[in-house]
TrEMBL record:
Residues 160-334 form the FAD-binding PCMH-type domain. Coiled coil: none annotated. It comes from Raphanus sativus. Belongs to the oxygen-dependent FAD-linked oxidoreductase family. SUPFAM superfamilies: FAD-binding/transporter-associated domain-like (SSF56176). The keyword Manganese does not apply. GO terms for molecular function: FAD binding; oxidoreductase activity. Its cofactor is FAD. Pfam families: BBE (PF08031), FAD_binding_4 (PF01565). The lineage of its organism: Eukaryota, Viridiplantae, Streptophyta, Embryophyta, Tracheophyta. This is Berberine bridge enzyme-like 21.
């Protein structure tokens, strides 16, 4: 902005000349703030003149906007004659300039993009032309493809879905630091996306102006078999991690999820679990080190960040404290041969008894055995019924698991012909629904392409005591009534039950099993979507009497905004406590203290982030 020139024509009517080289809305908002402040100081009639000035500006803005090619950034010139005493003028314009920073949020997206680009270029010491390859505004031809590349739920890939003002795809740690530091003054919501598997889209959607930091380019995986460790970057996928381990060793693995396109950053910062959870616990139970960019733009390792922050990002959600860059993990041994199997039963042929008995066996059997229970309403022979399927991984031979379950779960009626022996890597492919896992090239795990045409909703619960048989039967009938919503029971026990609830932020160690509510659909219709979302809510409500209480527990990585959201206002702590207790139990209090210490201004926030402690009045 140029300074004003002040040339009094006479003592009663000074003349002002302003040349404003910024958004007119920016100026008007600042002026209005100045007027409000001044009104508290005096009630003189000078405001008639000030509002006249505002009117003049509006007319000039309208004129220029009708003639300029770019109405988002224009120049205004105006003059104003007034009898206002110079002292008053000095105070008013002092207040005006004082208030300018307060109005910065009104800058249009183009101006915001240019400001961000200049800051980013300066901090990374990189030419703007080169930086533009990694910083995208809605006018960039690649913007839409970059945004949609990692949207895994079609519910958040519609024309009406809010879109980010800027997407940053960093290729170095310095890019991440610059993104944080250049975003802070703009006060936009700062979303961090690794693989885009947040079930409710909180890593790339907001109802407030927001940026997206897409970590997909930071995908390095470095495996050191000599010391059985690996550095895995936040933007890497689980499939890439498994493949890189397999390249170096056939007898090592890592206990994480079964979906190969899930991003490391979100998965591990939320706890992370998979089909070796009973043998080895959670993913975060095998963390050695980590790197993070904090709110001040510093790149910190475990020693630099301290044990409190390291603890927080080991299951407390990385998006609340900083940008997780990657983790150093400890690999685990796996046998050369493992066994997988899938057995199905229906409601009219023993499924109720099998599911009921499974509750007493699944969480307590040999820790080398993980038996997931899938429960789904289906139509069989033109009759609506429920199918119960046990999908399992056994870290050993088929003969051993058949013998084991013949004793512990005869209701399953497992036969050796139901089983397939394979390598651990092949089992990862099999769990990803690859029917030809023993013949498939593991390189398919390097493929990041995923069809996001499916709409979906997930919810979660935990079960501390077995559901009685009549409860299982009533559950089946309710699922038939609803028609589509399915359930996944994931057993705990084994190593999980041996780790303290406060060892990491994940508190649900002593539960028998976790429930995932799951519904997918293909139709793009608000009415259909509402119906399926209501199915999920209704079944979740039906299960209240059977699941954990005080609080009713939930799993962070099965994101569910139905249990509460945070508007980040004066009630932020109270709102955050609602979902925070469900996700983290008693560990919520420690997470809040850490958050308040490392990010006191609450820059890293989303609709379900950890809040800061309420300020003392």
């Amino acid at each position: 902005m140029n300074t004003h020139s002040f040339r009094p024509k006479n003592k009663k009517s000074p003349r002002f000349y302003f040349i404003c080289h910024f958004s007119p809305n920016f100026f008007l908002n600042a002026l209005n703030i100045s007027i409000q402040i001044w009104f508290q100081l005096t009630n003189t009639n000078i405001f008639r003149n000030i509002f006249s000035l505002s009117s003049v500006i509006n007319k000039q803005v309208s004129t220029v906007q009708n003639t300029t090619r770019d109405p988002r950034r224009i120049s205004i010139s105006f003059h104003f004659i007034t009898t206002m005493p110079r002292t008053y003028l000095s105070v008013v314009f002092f207040l005006l300039f004082l208030s300018l920073p307060l109005s910065s949020l009104s800058q249009p997206s183009h101006s915001v993009y240019n400001s961000f680009l200049k800051c980013f270029s300066m901090r990374t010491r990189t030419p703007q032309a080169q930086i533009a390859k990694n910083v995208f505004s809605p006018t960039n031809p690649s913007y839409t493809s970059v945004l949609r590349a990692y949207i895994r739920n079609a519910r958040f890939n519609t024309s009406s879905t809010p879109k980010p003002t800027i997407i940053v795809t960093p290729r170095s740690y310095s890019h991440v630091s610059a993104a944080v530091l250049c975003s802070k003054p703009l006060n936009f919501v700062f979303k961090i996306r690794s693989g885009g598997h947040d079930y409710d889209g909180l890593s790339y959607v907001s109802d407030k102006p927001f940026f997206v930091l897409d970590m997909s380019n930071l995908r390095d995986v470095s495996v050191n078999i000599a010391d059985q460790t690996a550095w895995i970057s936040a933007g890497a996928t689980l499939g890439e991690v498994y493949y890189k381990i397999w390249e170096k060793s056939r007898v090592h693995g890592f206990p994480a999820g079964i979906c190969p396109t899930v991003g490391v950053g979100g998965h591990l910062s939320g706890g992370g679990y998979g089909n070796m959870v009973r043998k080895y616990g959670l993913s975060v139970d095998h963390l050695i080190d980590a790197k993070i960019v904090d709110v001040w733009g510093r790149v910190l390792d475990r020693r630099g960040m301290g044990e409190d922050l390291f603890w927080a990002i080991s299951g407390g959600g990385g998006g609340s404290y900083g940008v997780v860059l990657g983790y150093k993990i400890k690999l685990v041994p796996v046998p050369k041969t493992v066994t997988v199997f899938r057995v199905e039963q229906y409601m009219d042929s023993g499924a109720v008894d099998m599911v009921h008995k499974w509750q007493y066996v699944g969480p307590k059997t040999d820790r080398n055995l993980f038996m997931r229970m899938l429960i789904q309403p289906v139509t069989r022979k033109k009759v609506k019924t429920v199918r119960a399927s046990v999908v399992a991984l056994f870290l050993g031979r088929a003969d051993d698991v058949v013998s084991l379950l013949d004793k512990e779960l005869p209701e399953l009626a497992l036969k050796k012909e139901n089983c397939t022996e394979m390598t651990w890597m092949q089992s990862a492919l099999w769990w990803d629904n690859d029917k030809n896992a023993t013949e498939t090239d593991p390189k398919v795990f390097l493929d990041r392409n995923l069809d996001s045409s499916s709409f979906g909703k997930r919810k979660s619960d935990y079960v501390a005591r077995e559901i009685p048989r009549d409860g299982i039967e009533s559950l089946f009938k309710k699922m038939i009534e609803l028609g589509k919503i399915g359930l996944v029971f994931n057993p705990y026990g084994g190593r999980m039950a041996e780790i303290a609830e406060d060892a990491t932020p994940f508190p649900h160690r002593n539960m028998l099993y976790k429930i995932q509510y799951s519904v997918n659909w293909k139709e793009s219709s608000p009415e259909i979507e509402k119906g399926f979302l209501n199915q999920a809510k209704e079944l979740h409500s039906f299960m209240t009497r059977f699941v954990s209480m005080s609080p009713r527990s939930a799993y962070l990585n099965y994101r569910d905004v139905d249990i509460g959201v945070n508007d980040q206002g004066k009630d932020s702590y109270k709102e955050g406590e609602v979902y925070g207790r469900m996700y983290f139990g008693k560990n919520f209090d420690r997470l809040v203290k850490i958050k308040t210490k490392v990010d006191p201004g609450n820059f890293f926030r989303n609709e379900q982030s950890i809040p800061t402690l309420p300020r003392k009045s």
